[in-house]
Amino acid sequence: MCASRELKRVLKGSLEARVDGFPSFPGQEKHLLKCQLTRIVHACQVVPSGHFRANEDEPRKIEFGEDFKLQELSELVSLENWQHRHPQILRAGKIYHTLDMSLNEESRQQLLEDSQASDPE
Length: 121
What we know:
32% of the residues lie in helices and 10% in strands. The protein is of the alpha+beta class. It has 3 domains: 1-45, no CATH class; 46-85, no CATH class; 90-121. A hairpin with a 7-residue loop joins strand 2 and strand 3.
């Protein structure tokens, strides 16, 4: 995912084709296409604010907002009334920071804080 951000390439149309270029891409054209489509979906799908919300038990799980009511058209003109449907893709190529579970709780918390400071979700 990270290499697909920097690679500028015109696709050949053969999904099994090798991807040449700089920086090198570790996969075939079908993998590059999947990365590009994933980036487009995560960047472009927006919904009115409140339509989705995080699950209280599992914050990374998204569910429909039960008390959602569509706003008036005059309110929907403002960008503040919209949110992305999918989470932002981090520079690490993931949608959330992962932690090594073998670390102790204090080390994991510090690593999470450092990761979020350098690459906010």
